[in-house]
Design brief:
By secondary structure, the chain is mainly alpha-helical. Helix content is 66%, strand content 0%. The protein is built from 16 helices and no strands.
Length: 292
Amino acid sequence: MYERAKRVAETLSMFKEDFIVLLEKKDPQYHAVKLLALKNPRVAAIVSIANALISYQLTGRGEDYWSEVGRYFVEKNIVNPVELFLEFKDFLLNHTRYNRRYVYTKISRLEKLWKSNLLNTLWENPTLYCRCQEKLLGELVRIYRQPWSAKTLVFAVKMYYYFCKARGLDVKPSQKIPMPCDRRICFITLSSGILYIKGAIITWNNIWGYVDLLMKKHRDSLVQAWFLVSKLSGLPAIYMDTIIWLLARFIMRGRSIEDIYKEFTRVYEVEFLPSKLVKSLIHELLFILHVA
């Protein structure tokens, strides 16, 4: 496990910060947040967090869902938090294509945020937590009584960080924020070999079963594995997540390294990234599955 974490970390450490910042701006989730941030910072700050808190069990790709959210809310002229909640509720009940599961559970989850002091704080000062992201995560942990590493809470901090960047602030993600470990990241955790399940022989035919096992029973080990990669690479987990999450969309299709690279480059227009470095990373992230 350590040797594989070290190899992945060494490759990630070769990505210059300038490259990562440019890659962030290619993320469709960033585009959605920026669309809102340019129109109404108060709405954008809250939507970036609130929507992340209910971004699970989607009925489509995360990229498509966030684009849908951005288009919906940018058309609304929202003047207070109550109106924003009612719009969010209407969106989930009547408009979204990509977040149709457990809708009432998700509305209840939003209600917890709206009943908290955090909501009013953000409405009054949208950029308050841009330079103290751990404090924002702590507030969410308190509101939802979930672990510090809970995926949706950590993802909410990442999307709020995107909001801060979209507002033009010179901020970096905190090294103390864990990796937002969703199914894509869990897949890469196994396919790269940075986490090993005793007795498991990972193949393309069985990897999703092990992804489910890892998500349900070994989440702490999953988070710690990426903290190790973060420590060895010197990169905050949120930086790593942007690189790996965008790449994973193509890696999971089971194509060759060359095909993955070409599609990734074409879709996100990232020709500025060194091709040899990206292909090397793809190789390391697919190490266990031995893609040629």
